[in-house]
UniProtKB/TrEMBL annotation:
Residues in Pyruvate phosphate dikinase AMP/ATP-binding domain copies: 5-42, 45-283, 296-350
Residues the entry annotates as binding substrate: R552, R608, E736, G757, T758, N759, D760
The gene coding this protein: ppdK
Active-site residues, Swiss-Prot/TrEMBL: H446 (tele-phosphohistidine intermediate), C822 (proton donor)
Coiled coil: none
Name of the featured protein: pyruvate, phosphate dikinase
Organism in which the protein naturally occurs: Pseudolycoriella hygida
Length: 870
C-alpha cells in the first residue's frame, strides 16, 4: 500500500516535507483506516482512540511548549482532511480549535494583540458552528455583514476590537440557539471535529466530486492535526497559495496569491481578493516579492526544491507567522489542459522526465478544453467588466444566480453561474454550467481551482459587479443584467461581454502537436474517425486521423434535398418505383463519395452500407406525407397504408442493416455502384487511388453475409467490366450482435475484417435501449447496482468478453483478420486500454475525440509495457 493510501495526499506531503527538513508546523496524521472503521461501525470511533489521541496531543504539547486547553500558554490546533486524491474545497477544515472565552483571554495576554485573539475566536466559532454543529453558514454571514454595516466597515482591514467583540457574542448566541450541546471543552471540540471531518467524506459535494472525477470511495480520508500557525497576527503575518509553475498557462515561473493578516480559508474560499506573489515586472505594488522580499526568496527556493523532489508541478499552501514561513501542504497541482501539455513538454526538454512520463501526465479527457472555440477579439466591442482570468476558454450562456437555477435552466439553455463567491456546496451547479463568474476570489480560490479541474471557463474577482441575488440581477455601472440575460465570459482574459460574441476555431500550440507526435511514435493502436461529410473528413485529418473507420452512409441522406428521395425509395410499393427513386439518388451518392475520397485519397476509408432504422426517414407530419404522395404521384391513402405497413414496434431491432440489403438488394447495389464509380472517376481525373473498405452492417448469421456478399461481388464484377479495370478493396462486417460474436469463426472465413459496433453490441447484450437508458439508469448508479454507464465506458466483463471471444474465434479461421472498433467507446480512454490489450488494430471515434484517443492509445501501450516489465 502506498503512503498516500494510508496518510492521504496531505499527510504524505507533510511527511515528505518533514524528511526534506522544510519548515512545517508540528502535528500528526490519523490514517485512512480510521475513516473505514468509522463508516463500518455506525459513526463510532475505536474504543482506545481517545487514549491514543491524548498521547499524540501530549507529544505536541512537549514539542511546542504550549498546553491544549490551558489558560496561560494555550495550544490551538488545525484539523484538516486529507484524501488520497486531492479534492480541493470538497472536505472540511477547522482552524483555531481549542478556543473558548478563557483561552481567547489567554491568547490576548500572551500575544498582546486583542485584534488577533478576537479574530481567531470569531473564525473558530463560525467554522465549528457550520462544520460540527451543522448550522447554516448564512446565519453567520448575515450577522457578519449586518455588523459591518452598523460599524461602517467596508474593507477587512477596517475591522476593529468593538466589532469583533459584538460578532463573538452574536456567533455564540447563534450556536446556543441551534445546539444544546456544550462546545467549550477543547478535547470534546477535537473529538467532534474529527468526526465532522470524517463525515464530510460522504457529504453530497464530496460524493459528487468523486463521481465527476472518477475517484473511488476507498480508502477514505486521513485527518491531519497540527499546531496552529497564524497568518492573522499582524502586518508581518500572511497566508497564501503558490504553484511552482503557472497552472493556467504552464509558464515556468512561480505563480500564486497571498493575503497579509489573514488565515488560509480567506484565500481559498474566495471571500477576499488576494494580491499576487510575484511582482510581474513591478506592476503589482503589494506583491509578496515587493513587500516581503526575503520571505519571497525563501519561498521560491522551496518551490524549486519540491518540484525537483516530486518531478512535477506543486500546489503549496503556506502561512507566515510573525515573519516566519511555514508550509501547510504540498500536492501535485491541478492544471488546465494547456498548462498540462506545456509543462510536460518543457520538463522533457529540461531532462527531468521522459517522453513516456510526459504522456502519462496528460489526462486525455481534459484535452476537450483545447478543441473548442475562443473569442474573436478583432470583431468585439468593449467588455462591460473585467475580472481575473481564472480558468481559460470562452463560454456564452444565460445568467443564473444559484446552483438550483443552473440545474433547472441547463435542460434547455447553456448557463453562466454568477455568484459572490462559490462554495463546495455549489459543485453540482458548477458542473452543469458552461462557465462561472464570481465577484470575489482570486486565481487560487475555490471557484478557480474547481473550474480548472473541470475545464470550465471561469472569471473570478470581478469587483465591479454589484450582485443582488434576491432580485436576481447584477449591475456594472449603468448596465443591469437580469436572470436569463445572455452574457459571454472569457476565462483567458477575465473579460465579460453582454450577449453572444463572435468566436474563432481552436489552434494547436507547438507543445500540443509535439505531445501528439510523441504519442503516435509510441502507440500501436491506430486512431481513425467517424466521418461522412467533407467537413468531418477535413477536421479528422487536422486532428491526426489515420483514416475513416466508419462512414455511415445513411447520414449522407440527412438534408432537405435527399430525404424526400430516400422516403420514395423506402415507401415505394414495388420494384419499379424503388428503382426510379434509386436512379435519382445515384448521382447524389457519387458526388458525396467522390468529395470524401478526394480528401482521404491516401488513407483507408471504411464505408458502411445503408443501416438506418427506417423510422428515422419516414414522414410524421401531415404536410410531409402529402408532399411525399405528390412527389410519388400516389394517392395519400396509399402512402399512409404503406407507412402503416412499415411501422415497427422496436425499429432499432427491426428492418435495418443487412436485413434491408436482403429485402431490397437494389439499394446496396446502387451504393456499391456509386462508390466504385466515384473511385474510378477520381483515378481518371486526378490519378488518385482510394483505399476502400466495404462493410456490411448488423450481421447475425453467416448466411445473411453470404447472401449479400454474393450479389455485391457480382455487382463489382459488372462495374469492373464496364470500366475495364480492377478495384482493390476489402470486405468486412460489423460485429454488433451477440450471436455474431459467438459465430465469429464462421463469419471471419467470409470477410477481411471485423469492426465491432460497441453501441449496438452493448444494447443487445444488456437488452437496454441507449435512447431510453436515461429514464432509469441513474437509479441503478445511485443504488450501486452498476458502478458506471456501459454506454460511456465499455463493460469489459460482458460486452468485452464477447469481443474477446469474437477475436479469438475469428483469428482461428482467418489469421489475417483485421480488427477495428467504431462505437462511442472508441473515444473513451479507459475502454481504449481494453482495446489495446484485446489486440485491436484501430479505433474510430468522432473527430473531436481523436486527440484524446491518440493520447489514450499511447498511454495504453506504456501501461502494457510497464506490466510486461514486472
Amino acid at each position: 500500500m502506498v503512503m498516500q493510501d494510508i496518510l492521504g495526499s496531505k499527510g504524505a506531503g507533510l511527511a515528505e516535507m518533514s524528511n526534506l527538513n522544510l519548515p512545517i508546523p508540528n502535528g500528526f496524521t490519523i490514517t485512512t483506516e480510521l475513516c473505514n472503521y468509522f463508516y463500518q461501525n455506525n459513526y463510532n470511533l475505536p474504543k482506545d482512540f481517545n487514549k491514543e489521541l491524548s498521547v499524540a496531543i501530549k507529544n505536541l504539547e512537549l514539542e511546542s511548549g504550549k498546553v491544549f486547553g490551558d489558560t496561560s500558554k494555550p495550544l490551538l490546533l488545525s484539523v484538516r482532511s486529507g484524501a488520497r486524491t486531492s479534492m480541493p474545497g470538497m472536505m472540511d477544515t477547522i482552524l483555531n480549535l481549542g478556543m473558548n472565552d478563557e483561552v481567547c483571554e489567554a491568547l490576548l495576554h500572551t500575544t498582546n494583540n486583542k485584534l488577533f485573539a478576537f479574530d481567531s475566536y470569531r473564525r473558530f466559532l463560525e467554522m465549528y458552528g457550520t462544520i460540527v454543529i451543522l448550522i447554516p453558514p448564512g446565519l453567520f454571514k448575515d450577522a457578519f455583514e449586518r455588523h459591518k454595516i452598523k460599524h461602517n466597515i467596508y474593507q477587512e482591514n477596517e475591522i476593529n476590537e468593538e466589532f469583533l467583540k459584538e460578532i463573538i457574542k452574536e456567533f455564540k448566541n447563534i450556536i446556543l440557539n441551534n445546539s444544546a450541546e456544550p462546545f467549550t471543552d477543547p478535547y470534546l471540540q477535537l473529538e467532534k471535529a474529527i468526526k465532522a471531518v470524517l463525515k464530510s467524506w460522504m457529504s453530497e459535494r464530496a460524493i459528487t466530486y468523486r463521481k465527476l472525477h472518477n475517484i473511488p470511495d476507498n480508502p477514505g480520508t486521513a485527518i491531519n492535526v497540527q499546531t496552529m500557525v497564524f497568518g492573522n497576527q499582524g502586518s508581518d503575518s500572511a497566508t497564501g497559495v503558490v504553484f511552482t509553475r503557472n497552472p493556467s498557462t504552464g509558464e515556468n515561473k512561480i505563480f500564486g496569491e497571498y493575503l497579509i493578516n489573514a488565515q488560509g480559508e480567506d484565500v481559498v474560499s474566495g471571500t477576499r481578493t488576494p494580491n499576487h506573489i510575484t511582482s510581474d515586472d513591478n506592476k503589482c505594488t503589494y506583491s509578496m516579492q515587493n513587500t516581503m522580499p526575503e520571505l519571497f526568496e525563501q519561498l521560491q527556493e522551496i518551490c524549486k526544491k519540491l518540484e525537483l523532489h516530486y518531478l512535477d508541478v506543486q500546489d503549496i499552501e503556506f502561512t507566515i507567522e510573525s515573519g516566519k514561513l511555514y508550509l501547510l501542504q504540498t500536492r501535485i497541482a491541478k492544471r488546465t489542459a494547456l498548462a498540462s501539455i506545456k509543462i510536460a513538454t518543457d520538463m522533457v526538454e529540461e531532462k527531468l522526465i521522459s517522453k513516456q512520463q510526459a504522456i502519462m501526465r496528460i489526462d486525455p479527457e481534459t484535452l476537450n478544453q483545447l478543441l473548442h472555440t475562443a473569442i474573436d477579439y478583432s470583431q468585439l466591442k468593449t467588455p462591460i467588466a473585467k475580472g481575473l482570468p481564472a480558468s481559460p476558454g470562452a463560454a456564452t450562456g444565460i445568467v443564473v444566480f444559484s446552483p438550483y437555477d443552473a440545474e433547472k435552466m441547463s435542460h434547455h439553455h447553456k448557463v453562466i453561474l454568477v455568484r459572490h463567491d462559490t462554495s463546495p456546496d455549489d459543485i453540482n451547479g458548477m458542473h452543469i454550467s458552461s462557465g462561472i463568474l464570481t465577484k470575489r476570489g482570486g486565481m487560487t480560490s475555490h471557484a478557480a481551482v474547481v473550474a480548472r479541474g473541470m475545464g470550465k471557463p471561469c472569471v473570478c474577482g470581478a469587483n465591479d459587479l454589484i450582485i443582488d441575488e434576491k432580485r436576481q440581477i447584477f449591475k456594472v455601472g449603468d448596465v443591469t443584467v437580469k436572470h436569463g440575460d445572455l452574457i459571454t465570459i472569457d476565462g483567458s482574459t477575465g473579460k465579460i461581454f453582454l450577449g453572444e460574441v463572435p468566436l474563432i476555431p481552436p489552434t494547436f500550440t507547438k507543445e500540443f502537436q509535439t505531445i501528439l507526435d510523441w504519442a503516435d511514435e509510441i502507440a500501436t493502436l491506430k486512431v481513425r474517425s467517424n466521418a461522412e461529410t467533407t467537413l468531418d473528413a477535413i477536421t479528422s485529418l487536422q486532428f491526426g486521423a489515420t483514416g475513416i473507420g466508419l462512414c455511415r452512409t445513411e447520414h449522407m441522406f440527412f438534408d432537405q434535398y435527399k430525404i424526400p428521395l430516400v422516403r420514395e425509395m423506402i415507401i415505394a410499393p414495388n420494384l419499379e418505383h424503388r428503382k426510379h427513386a434509386i436512379e435519382k439518388l445515384l448521382p447524389l451518392q457519387i458526388k458525396d463519395f467522390k468529395a470524401l475520397f478526394k480528401i482521404m485519397h491516401d488513407k483507408p476509408i471504411n464505408i458502411r452500407l445503408l443501416d438506418p432504422p427506417l423510422h428515422e426517414f419516414l414522414p410524421t407530419t401531415e404536410i410531409d406525407k402529402q408532399n411525399l404522395a405528390t412527389s410519388m404521384s400516389l394517392p395519400l391513402n396509399i402512402v399512409e397504408q404503406r407507412l402503416h405497413t412499415l411501422y415497427e414496434v422496436n425499429p432499432m431491432l427491426g428492418h435495418r442493416g443487412c436485413r434491408l440489403g436482403i429485402t431490397y438488394p437494389e439499394i446496396y447495389q446502387m451504393q456499391v455502384l456509386a462508390i466504385l464509380t466515384a473511385i474510378r472517376e477520381l483515378q481518371v481525373e486526378d490519378n488518385k487511388n482510394t483505399i476502400l473498405e466495404l462493410m456490411i452492417p448488423l450481421i447475425s448469421d453467416v448466411n445473411e453475409l453470404k447472401a449479400i456478399k454474393k450479389y455485391i461481388k457480382n455487382t463489382i464484377t459488372e462495374i469492373e467490366a464496364i470500366h475495364k479495370c480492377k478495384f482493390d478493396l476489402t470486405l468486412g462486417t460489423m460485429i454488433e450482435l451477440p450471436k455474431a460474436a459467438l459465430q465469429a469463426d464462421k463469419i471471419a472465413s467470409e470477410v477481411d475484417y471485423f469492426s465491432f459496433g460497441t453501441n449496438d453490441l452493448t444494447q443487445t447484450t444488456y437488452g437496454i435501449s441507449r435512447d431510453d437508458v436515461a429514464s432509469f439508469f441513474p437509479d441503478y448508479l445511485e443504488k450501486k447496482i452498476f458502478t458506471f454507464d456501459p454506454f460511456n465506458k465499455l463493460d469489459e466483463e460482458g460486452v468485452g468478453e464477447l469481443i474477446n471471444i469474437a477475436i479469438k474465434r475469428g483469428l482461428y479461421t482467418n489469421p489475417k483478420l483485421k480488427l477495428g472498433i467504431c462505437g462511442e467507446h472508441a473515444g473513451n480512454p479507459i475502454s481504449i486500454e481494453f482495446f489495446h490489450k484485446a489486440g485491436i488494430h484501430y479505433i474510430s471515434c468522432s473527430p473531436y475525440r481523436i486527440p484524446i484517443a491518440r493520447i489514450a492509445a499511447a498511454q495504453a501501450k506504456i501501461k502494457s509495457a510497464l506490466i510486461n516489465e514486472t
